[in-house]
Amino acid sequence: MADEKTTSPVSSHRLVVRAEEAGRRLDLLLAEHIPELSRRRARTLIAAGAVSMDRRRVLVQSRPVAAGQEVICHLQSLPSAESAPLEPSRIVHEDDVLLAIDKPSGMPSHPTFARKAGTALQLAEELLRRRERRKVHLWPLHRLDTATSGLLLFAKTQAAARAVNQNFARRRVAKRYLALVAGVPATELGEIRLALAEGHLRTEPSHDGKEAVTRYRVLEAVSAHAALVELEPLTGRMHQLRVHLAAIGHPVLGDTKYGGGDAGSAARLMLHASRLELPHPSDGRPFVLTSSLPEDFAVVVAAQRGR
Asked: Which residue of 91, 132, 149, 260 has the fewest C-beta atoms within 10 A of its own C-beta?
């Protein structure tokens, strides 16, 4: 098995299965080829979704491997730094059953195999625990990419979580995002219908993928090189907005994964969750949350206007 290691905050090991290794258990193979990995740790990473085979996530530790398969294992290479507490000013809305925060870019929504501490879920629970001096449990209702800023909603009761999740399933939750994209779309209004296949940490257009639909509206041609657009995802695929925009030739600025990294001076991903509309779980009445552009986003927009 050939293997190579890449360096990043999450270290990745790429393995290619040799013919004589065909049929071996995945957890055993990883432990044999990655010096810092015990079999127990390998099983933990597989269960956490940190291992893929031929770009598809694998969750079965005993899965046999086949000759020629590409196996990628992501390790947490650096300990998580102690995170600053979530400021109370980050709370956008709170009532008896819901909590909404304005998540900054760079903060993970939920714990993952790569990061347990410093997530929005953990920090929001700690904020409430300090304030109320008792253990508090929140139910995450959706997620934002780590690099995306904006509205993130949690339930404070299991009944509320169940009600909101049912509304998500019935597509009764409307979401809006603001994005600064490379170039200016030719039409002010548009709809992108492009099926997507979700791989491990990456999504690609695919005829065999799941239906994915995004509506967009150009709010402002900031310059000849960039536009501010409003996005409405009608489906919820991983990285859907970023992949759809890249597919029509207008990647999100600052998106090094999907082609917007060199399309302007943006130190962050220029994508912000700006609006949520859903029936309130307590009484079913329309409930709307909004978030204005954060300062680090607005600064880049202003800089683009000067180009």
From this structure: 132
